[in-house]
Design goal:
Elements (H helix, E strand, L loop, with lengths): L7 E2 L3 E2 L17 E6 L2 E8 L4 E8 L5 E7 L7 E7 L4 E7 L6 E2 L7 E7 L4 E8 L21 E8 L11 E6 L15 H4 L4 E6 L4 E2 L5 E8 L10 E9 L8 E10 L6 H10 L39 H6 L15 E7 L6 E2 L4 E5 L6 E11 L8 E2 L2 E7 L5 E2 L1 E6 L14 E8 L1 H7 L4 E10 L4 E11 L5 E9 L10 E4 L5 E3 L3 E9 L22 E7 L9 E3 L6 E8 L21 H4 L1 E7 L6 H5 L3 H12 L1
Parallel strand pairs: 21-25, 26-35
Antiparallel strand pairs: 1-2, 3-4, 4-5, 5-11, 6-7, 6-12, 7-8, 8-9, 10-11, 12-13, 14-24, 15-23, 16-22, 17-20, 17-21, 17-24, 18-19, 18-22, 26-34, 27-33, 27-36, 28-31, 28-32, 28-34, 29-30, 29-33, 30-37
Length: about 625
Amino acid sequence: MRQRLAVSLFCGLFVLQAVAAVDDFDGSSYARNVSLDTNVDIFWTVDLEAETIRVAVHAKAATGWAGVGISEMGGMEGADIVFYETATGNLTDAYSLVAGTPVVDECTQDWTLLSAEVGDGSLVFEAERALDTGDDQDRVFSDDSFDGAIPTRVLTAWGDSDTVGYHGENFAKGQVVMFGGSENDDAADPVIDVKTSEDVQFFDAAPKNFSIPTVRTWYENTCITASELPDLDEYHAIAFEGLLQADTAEYVHHLILTGFYGASDCGKACSEWLDEMFASEDGSDSSSTVEGGEEGASSSSPSGSSYPSDDSSSVSFTEYFENLNITVPSFCSNYGEQADIFVWAPGTSNLELPGDVGFLLGNESGGFNSLNIQTHYNNPDGVSGKNDSSGVRVYYTEELRPIQMGVLKLGDPFIALSDQPLPDGKSSFSFGCPGTCSETNFEEEEVTIFNHVLHMHENGQRMVTHQYRDDGEGNEELIHTTEVWYYSSLQAGAHVVTVNGSATIKKGDSFTTQCMYDTSLSSVGSANVTFGLGSEQEMCVNFIFYYPDQRLPDGGACGVFACDGGVLGYEELEADSDFNRTFGIVDTCTSSLSGEEEGSDSSSSSRAAQPLLGPLFAVSTIIAALSLEIIMA
């Protein structure tokens, strides 16, 4: 279904163009090619039978060296690189852990030079290697052609010096689909199929010419009411496209689209009623469209109103008011029933859902009746006079699909640790989602995971979620790990891992999410970093999109103050090695990892071997949070 070539979305819409074989280099033998820059073309063929990849790099404005690499988030951090130098005629297998000169692979030189040529002001080299070399200083070329898969992030650089050095402006990056297709494919993005389908229409969810405030952090919530949505009884949203206004793209930190069940106004009327019922003594407005509004929520979110709806309360929203002899108005009947349906951040891609899955909307659907688009603006220099209409294009069909998409949010989804300081330097924070959450709230015995969206801010270094399942003997086995080894908010605002069917969640499954930070990277000073909503503050949230939807409480949140989750622990770290990365770090030069780090079907790893987790799940979230505060005091 998804026969596409390449796409990239970096602070705006930037589509990589397919290129024909250039006059002075015959690339006709390659299955695919792309121009990341006017000065460089990349050609490649994946041979699935031989399990190899053949690559050609044509640098049209360099005579000294050229290189190409792949990385998790698109930058030098954690990149696997190969480069050719004309002075020596050598091809070098290398890697990089930071933005700097690549380090020669100390394990094995896995690339084979096939040919090289220097012409009049340009050079080209061809090379080949195995898709999976078994070398921990190489990255695996993984299939990125299936539906929902994230394209491979590619970077390239070139220069005229005799040896590899600082590239300056001679650098380009993008996202390309390495697997599948042929040389006849047009350049396209992940939603090309729905764009060209006669059965698919679209609408835009975006603020209208919003004046960006001059404060550093602003969360603007724009409701697309029922009257503004398509006037249909039932329809499915099936794909999403980030739309960035070119002259204001640099100020958009992220976009979150949230759907509201029942409420035709994103819960505004209910929120206003709650404000009247629980008006603060100083008469302040509790709307979330203020500096420091809530992540991924609107004015009617459980923690965005005056109603005390954290997990310490044992009564429902309606029961709370009935106990006070207060009648809840009909427009509050679906209070708190909402779910995030699309998350966009710079460096992430557009999204098409699996063919039989969608988000249900419509007047009589029982699905979402209104949508809220939350825009996080980051304006550190206080620039004035900028008006923005960036948002999300929603593609929908009236041909209903049989399965509804849902979301589960792990870590600290309500940013409950807001204003809590991070240690000066390196640290690690762990959060838990116990098995009681899925055991209590799942109607289905098992659901399918579509993807994970991992989100931290500028100090984030590594993020990992472990999923555990009861082995039938009282132990919880590690069954799946989702992670980003080298997180870099400079390259992308989130890291997406698509599994689409290769992982499931069963009733009783539990999760731990660990975020690791280094405040020496902070834009406000290492000693001044706290958790919070600002881009200079920190977060730890993993959005898991799954199907079929289980209509979980609190918008699918399971973490601090949600679904019995909480803080599991905190640790100060001393060195980069404490981030427990493997790529480019290990001394053994093998790809064998422990079950905990490899993260799939690891029967040897069980919860019994991890004494910290079980007892803390039994402690209330509030006590865990207070304990953390005491520890860090």
